[in-house]
Design a protein that fits this description.
The protein has about 90 residues and is α+β, with helices and mostly antiparallel strands. About 35% of the residues lie in helices and about 25% in strands. It starts with 5 loop residues before the first strand and ends with a strand.
Length: about 90
């Protein structure tokens, strides 16, 4: 997933919350909790960078944390909150 070019799905809205954010998909009606502000920052920055790895580096996420971000972003992709940029 780190080499993927991802973006927030166009039908997904993020609502900031004290714990991070809520992501709501208008088509599927899925609701997902983004439980850390760093995850929200990364998701919001995906479209500004070529790959997920570039986004993590730009957001100054420690490389030791990248596996947990890879797992979180994979889950968001599988739940259709994120999609491949074309």
């Amino acid at each position: 997933m780190l080499d993927s070019s991802l973006d927030l799905h166009p039908q997904v809205a993020l609502r900031p919350e004290p714990f991070g954010a809520l992501a709501y998909h208008y088509d599927t009606r899925k609701l997902v909790f983004l439980k850390h502000p760093d995850v929200v920052r990364v998701v919001q920055s995906l479209s500004d960078h070529e790959t997920v790895a570039d986004t993590l580096a730009a957001c100054e996420i420690d490389e030791r944390r990248w596996p947990s971000f890879d797992k979180a972003l994979t889950s968001l992709y599988e739940s259709e909150m994120l999609h491949e940029r074309r």
